Amino acid sequence: MKAKEVIGLLEEVRKTRPLIHNITNTVVTNFTANGLLSMGASPVMANAPEEAAEMAKAANALVLNIGTLNREQVKAMRIAGKAANEKGIPVILDPVGAGATAYRTETALALLEELDVALIRANAGEMAALLGESGNVQGVDASGEADNPKLAKEAARRFEVIAAVTGVEDAVAHQGEVFIVQNGHTLLTKVTGTGCLLSSIAASFLTVQHSAGAVAAALAYYGAAAEIAGSLTTREGPGSFQIELLNALHATQEMDLRHYIRVKQES
Amino acid sequence: MKAKEVIGLLEEVRKTRPLIHNITNTVVTNFTANGLLSMGASPVMANAPEEAAEMAKAANALVLNIGTLNREQVKAMRIAGKAANEKGIPVILDPVGAGATAYRTETALALLEELDVALIRANAGEMAALLGESGNVQGVDASGEADNPKLAKEAARRFEVIAAVTGVEDAVAHQGEVFIVQNGHTLLTKVTGTGCLLSSIAASFLTVQHSAGAVAAALAYYGAAAEIAGSLTTREGPGSFQIELLNALHATQEMDLRHYIRVKQES
Amino acid sequence: MKAKEVIGLLEEVRKTRPLIHNITNTVVTNFTANGLLSMGASPVMANAPEEAAEMAKAANALVLNIGTLNREQVKAMRIAGKAANEKGIPVILDPVGAGATAYRTETALALLEELDVALIRANAGEMAALLGESGNVQGVDASGEADNPKLAKEAARRFEVIAAVTGVEDAVAHQGEVFIVQNGHTLLTKVTGTGCLLSSIAASFLTVQHSAGAVAAALAYYGAAAEIAGSLTTREGPGSFQIELLNALHATQEMDLRHYIRVKQES
Fold it and tell me: Which residues cross the membrane (chains A, B, C) (predicted)?
């Protein structure tokens, strides 16, 4: 994939300013909203069953993130998900901590069963848990030397979705297509919610083009922004990196991205 | 309005350190608390119906923000609001996303009906929605070229409150008085919760003086801090701006503000 | 206590990367998670009664923070606390705002009654409230010239816990041992959640060694990081300090700490 394609999709996101409805965990609401604003999308959070359907119908994409799930919120996810499916906007599932508790794994699987999900964005441990494989998740962080392309392909086939497994190298799979994204920075693992924000950014790209390529472009843009942020972070400080990442998501222009994007397509 | 009056009210806030009880959305809790601390007020958050009345009675002002409302929280808002009214402390309503869903619009109107609200702080789309006018709200951001003074005057009359409509130019109306505040910075629209924090800062100023002028002073102080923050933000980074805004709310001294404050009073 | 001992415990935390299960308030979730990641521990948040026990059993320590408590969350605290006790991992109580409302004081006391709590970390006003003494809490901030060692000793005896009372000088008491920690920085009072994060950091140290000394070491490390952060913060900006604190928690190396640690042991 050429940097030009990534930039084209990003520019389209910025032009259309899609409204992203996030039903997400209480740890990352602020960072997710700020990241979406920095990129140029419009965030909205709404968790009440009373308004979940109406908000989803006003939105351009819906992100369901189970990072601090509870009964009321899962109820709202179901309602919003059905409304999103009816309207035909993409539904993104971020199964945070799947495998860590049965409640998370079962809720994620139930949502996949009931809803028409466009994209699952997860780390290797979470995706393995959804696939019923040994999902040893230490906290909510990615870990280990998993085979991301294999997991992505299997999830794409099993759940009939675009599947993105992110880690040191990200893999995006859908109907035979597989993209490998080599952008990113180790400090992403030192800031909470960087995966959650990535799911919402991928949602934004999906509003422009419904394809595995658009998700790979979102991952490459985000990883490139992280690299730019990392290069501006002195003494590897996670606090500064978090701020520079928000800056980079906003500032990234065509010139910068051309030097960074590293996406391969497998056959 | 002279910079001197704004500074006098700010100094009084800092001297009295009012306790601001916020029942607010999960996106902005941290930023609101940090902004109030930076200015020199004391924040407290308490959402449980079990303690809402007691906390409101211990506070100097109560802020009700419907940004991620739910049934339990609205119940707590009612209880806290009644306690605040009994004690005679100002109740501030921030109708985040009014017009975006019926649940938000109706809840905001019900709170206005049931409680004695001192101040509504909203953007043009939200205020128009409360007034039953075409409230097209894109996400929770201000937008468009609304007639803020007209909306503020109408809301002030209709709801018998001080009404503040914020945007490129802010308008504050109350019983014939109208203030126009020309302070602010475009980066405020790139950071989530800047409007929510402003509502809590206006609440702090109301604890010192119950008037439209005090609200205009709060808006001018906040807008001036944003201008100072903007001038210290390199490459227009929204991440850095957020941090510089917290710094500026704290650092703003008499000398700085004198150069910034731009408040006009209409007859 | 020698800097060497503090550094030894910190290195052990970083090596073992303990999983800290936080059931905490909505204001500080993000900052707590980022602070734990910066230090080198693994944070997880899980508030639903459905998964509280399973998550606690997967964790190395459990932190219960009542800063925005509600019925469902308190239910989850009880369930998680019992599971943590069964597994034998330390349970840390942060009684945020005890004394401010009866609901908070009573909930904190009930948790102390029902659970085997390893550590209470509180400011003087909160600890006094738990002890039934005049607990005038202005917001959720520490204040006044309380006798921290006396309060810590009394709480340690009464509740049979390690008791840490933090303020200008911190006191940690347990079974006759008393440590006084003189590290810290005034800007800690200008950023929300710095006390909450400290509780979670103390929890991490307790996973390495169950002693008052380990808690004192955690407080000294945190206070030293705050001093380093303060020295890097220009113009006393609370926004910048918050970021520098996260940086310092990560960057603090043996060399730095040696110059900072100030812990005395009373007989």
Answer: none
Lowest mean pLDDT among A249-253, C8-12, C88-92: A249-253
**C170-174, strands of its sheet edge to edge:** C42-45, C19-23, C61-65, C91-94, C119-123, C162-166, C170-174, C177-181, C263-266
Which pLDDT belongs to residue C178? 98
CA distance B212 to B164: 9
Q: What is the pLDDT of residues A28-71, one digit of tens each?
A: 999 999 999 999 999 999 999 999 999 999 999 999 999 999 99
The reported pLDDT for the residue numbered A139 is 40
Structure tokens at C165: 């009372």
- SS3 of B52-114: the string is HHHHHHHCCEEEEECCCCCHHHHHHHHHHHHHHHHHCCCEEEECCCECCEHHHHHHHHHHHHH
Domains of chain A, by residue range, sit at 3-266
Q: Which chain A residue has the Cα nearest residue B188?
A: A37
- pLDDT (mean) for C154-163: 98
Would you say the pTM of this structure is higher than 0.80?
yes
> Chain B interface, mutation test: which of C77, C103, C197, most B Cβ atoms within 10 Å?
C103
Fold of B3-266: UDP-N-acetylmuramoyl-L-alanine:D-glutamate ligase (3.40.1190)
**Are B34 and C104 in contact (CB < 8 Å)?**
no
How far C210 CA lies from chain B's nearest CA (Å)? Answer: 31
- Kindly list the residues from chain A whose CB atom is less than 8 angstroms away from the CB atom of residue C50: 70-71, 101, 103
pLDDT given for residue C134 in this prediction: 65
As a whole number of angstroms, the distance between CA C19 and CA C36 comes to 9
- C-beta atoms of C17 and A138 within 8 A: yes
What backbone phi and psi angles, to 5 degrees, belong to C44?
-145, 140
Q: What is the ipTM of this complex?
A: 0.94
Residue A266 has pLDDT above 60, yes or no: yes
Which pLDDT value is given to residue B254?
Answer: 67
- Check if A35 contacts B (Cβ < 8 Å): no
